[in-house]
Design goal:
By secondary structure, the chain is α+β, with helices and mostly antiparallel strands. The protein is built from nine helices and 14 strands. The protein folds into two domains: about 50 residues; about 270 residues, 3-Layer(aba) Sandwich (Aminopeptidase), CATH 3.40.630. About 50% of the residues lie in helices and about 25% in strands. The protein starts with a helix and ends with a helix.
Length: about 325
């Protein structure tokens, strides 16, 4: 006959077994979900992966820079897609990631900037995408900044709405009250859903700073998107985030390089250095259009300044 002590021991042992079974089931579930996410991430990266013809020429430099953890440059192209053609790059943002200083240099190139587009003569820089897609846009920016673009990411601007909604919205600090696109944006800290974020980032006519004010808002939205996407709170939303990326993004970053960038360059988020390209708006006669066209004209002095600033950031240790 079992004593009371032995019965208590058996009962205690049964409880322990149940606890370990529950822990085991939870661990299996987490491992299974982890495998599912890894597979889905691989599939998403494969969907997004769109290499450029010029990548082969830069392959050795890119591999050396990643191996040595040197600064790399990334061009973000925000594109308004149109049926039957490439569309135009509504947004061009240069990110230069320096892991030695843990700084990210970030600046917009105003879309109306007058530049030489290879094979097409002088025109607005955003037309480079319309003429030759991401390949020509990258080449044009490289010539304008006298640097190498190691990676690019082409984002469908309409997909920005989905991206913001996927992470549950973004919070920005608005310094100018305005109404645009059927929405009102008061000053101060405001939280935006996807549609609001897209409208907020596109407004420029009501802004006394014009394109420069618009550029500042776009930078803020992108900064917040990156911060939110990398936060622990977004882990539960990773499914939606990956679906949005796969549907709206093209890039020449493959899975291996994406892992290297995440492991070795994530520290550059510690400090974001924002810069502006100064210029003047001018109406210049276009022979092809047979009318005066508005251009954002950057002086040689200002172009040299921004090129030097970028090079110093790249070389800083």
């Amino acid at each position: 006959m079992e004593t009371r002590k032995e019965k208590r021991k058996q009962k205690h042992g049964s409880k322990k077994k149940i606890i370990w079974i529950i822990i085991g089931v939870l661990l299996l579930g987490l491992i299974g979900y982890g495998i599912y996410l890894y597979v889905k991430l691989n599939e998403t990266v494969e969907t997004m992966y769109t290499p450029l013809e010029s990548d082969s020429e830069k392959q050795e430099e890119v591999e050396t820079r990643l191996s040595d953890k040197d600064t790399v440059n990334v061009l973000l192209l925000g594109v308004d897609e149109r049926e039957g053609d490439y569309g135009r790059s509504d947004t061009m943002i240069l990110l230069s990631l320096n892991p030695d200083t843990e700084k990210m240099l970030m600046f917009n190139i105003p879309r109306d900037t007058l530049v030489n587009i290879p094979g097409n003569g002088e025109d607005k820089i955003n037309h480079s995408y319309a003429f030759g897609g991401s390949e020509l846009a990258v080449q044009t920016v490289e010539n304008f900044l006298d640097t190498t673009i190691h990676f690019y990411s082409r984002i469908n601007m309409e997909g920005l709405k989905d991206g913001v909604d996927a992470i549950g919205g973004v919070t920005v600090n608005n310094d100018q009250e305005f109404s645009h696109g059927g929405h009102h944006f008061p000053t101060g800290e405001i939280t935006l859903n996807g549609e609001q974020a897209l409208i907020y980032s596109r407004m420029r006519k009501e802004d006394p700073r014009g394109d420069l004010g618009r550029n500042t808002r776009q930078q803020e939205i992108i900064n917040e998107l990156i911060d939110e996407a990398m936060s622990f709170e977004s882990f539960t939303k990773v499914d939606n985030i990956l679906d949005t990326l796969g549907s709206n993004v093209q890039t020449n970053v493959d899975m291996e390089k994406m892992q290297q960038l995440f492991m070795d360059y994530r520290g550059t988020r510690q400090e974001t250095v924002k810069e502006e390209i100064a210029g003047t708006g001018q109406m210049i006669y276009s022979e092809s259009a047979e009318q005066n066209i508005y251009y954002y004209v950057v002086s040689d002095q200002e172009q040299n300044r921004i090129q030097t600033l970028l090079q110093e950031h790249i070389e800083e240790k």
